[in-house]
Design goal:
- This protein is mainly alpha-helical.
- A two-stranded parallel ribbon has the order 1-2.
- It is 49% helix and 3% strand.
Length: 133
């Protein structure tokens, strides 16, 4: 959601004024803390969870460390929504990790969910855009 990204970016930028930092302040740690705080803020208990809407495209992006279980989780989530009557599909935009697309193919096939990705395209933004088009 572009509005959410812009809102998070604005909140982070309002907390950090790089030009007015005192000498010796670790900018990297300051930025990391601001980003972390905003991500935690997104997950507050008083915020309503994301609910997909029928009749329109809904895109959910998973981001995380290698080996955290993203591919398995997205396949399970796609299967869950498919069982509920939604039309689902998976897009593999991880163009850096060898075997990422193959793993997605395996999981999507097992869940009987359509998938999209590329063994040759190196630009993840292009793969993602093509996959949701």
């Amino acid at each position: 959601n572009l509005r959410m990204v812009l809102s998070v970016r604005k909140a982070i930028m309002s907390k950090i004024n790089i030009d007015k930092l005192a000498a010796g302040v670790d900018r990297r740690k300051l930025i990391q803390k601001a980003v972390f705080d905003e991500l935690v803020n997104l997950l507050r208990a008083d915020k309503k969870p994301y609910r997909p809407k029928k009749g329109q495209s809904n895109v959910i992006m998973f981001v995380g460390l290698q080996g955290a279980g993203k591919t398995t989780t997205v396949a399970k989530l796609a299967h869950y929504y498919k069982q509920k009557g939604w039309k689902t599909g998976l897009v593999c935009a991880d163009t850096f990790r060898a075997g990422a697309f193959d793993q997605l193919i395996q999981n999507a096939t097992k869940a009987r969910v359509p998938y999209y990705g590329s063994h040759t395209e190196r630009n993840p933004a292009k793969v993602a855009a093509d996959g949701v088009a």
